[in-house]
Amino acid sequence: MKGLSLVFTIGLVVYLARQLGEIGWGEVFTSIPRTPWFYLLYAGFYLCAPLCESVIFRLLWDCPARRSLPALIKKRVYSRYLLDYSGEAYLYLWARRSVDLPDRYLLHGIKDNIIISSSTSLLIGMVVLLGLLYGGQIALPERLLQQDAVYVAAAAVAGGSVVLLGIRFRRRLLSLSRSALVSLVGLHALRLVGLMVLQVMMWATAVPSASLKSWLSLLSIEGVISRIPFLPSRDFVFMGTGLEVSGGIGVALPALAGVLLTISVLEKLLNLVFFAFFSFVRPDGGEKVEVDPAVLDEG
After folding, report:
1. Long-range contacts (CB closer than 8 Å, 24 or more residues apart) made by 269-277
2. Tally of domains in the chain
3. What is the pLDDT of residues 237-274, one digit of tens each?
4. Is the dihedral of CA 39, 44, 45, 49 positive or negative?
5. What is the pTM (predicted TM-score) of this model?
6. Is residue 145, in this structure, part of any structural domain at all?
7. Is the alpha carbon torsion for 129, 131, 137, 141 positive or negative?
8. Does residue 128 contact residue 223 with C-beta atoms inside 8 Å?
């Protein structure tokens, strides 16, 4: 599996290098965003998910954000570059060392968070995609829109049914209290909406000449790719797909290449810096977080 993932990633890199070479490396580099607002928005986009999760685990484990945030950033790096959910395995091992709660309670918190996050992401993703599709905000050929509308609607119904079944049998699937689960759904919904808004604002700031419809179309493509399970190198897949459809969504190819390449480099650079820093520096000092026993009753 790891070998296939490596071959797939190498193939993507070669393909993207050829695409960028055909555009012209000089033209791509001159299209790199210059406005500082792009980089400020990217900083918010990068930190949005771990900050939201730090609030979630403060709720579940009474663990301060300053203690959990480094582990949550490393968790994302593991999930991005090893396998999906390998980051959750790392988080569990970190929590056993760092949070004074029973192992079973830690495991239930991580497991329930995965289920709620995936379900909320699926539901919101489908609602947004359907809204954009039927609102005419996705720049695709009319023929494809007509053919795919029925399939998208069917997928939305199927996804909604899965979520409803999960709610119906939540006591068998989930361990947290109803109030904790409702809080998790709300926090994940805010995270997802916040990420989408920041992403569109970031793109629009970098290439103000493109229309909002263009960026919403790109957002819908990213939403589909991000929900394909166990897909290696999603950022490269998204970059390649975005470059292929740039003409169809009305964004100049060099400009889109410059934006997507900058985002990919920034993500990898920040992941490397934070992972290396938090691997050698432990903000928690190696001591366990003392937890109020009432947290166990609330869960």
Report:
1. 270/46, 271/73, 271/76, 271/77, 271/80, 271/81, 274/70, 274/73, 274/74, 274/77, 275/73, 275/74, 275/77
2. 1
3. 888 888 888 888 889 988 999 999 999 989 999 998 99
4. positive
5. 0.84
6. yes
7. positive
8. yes
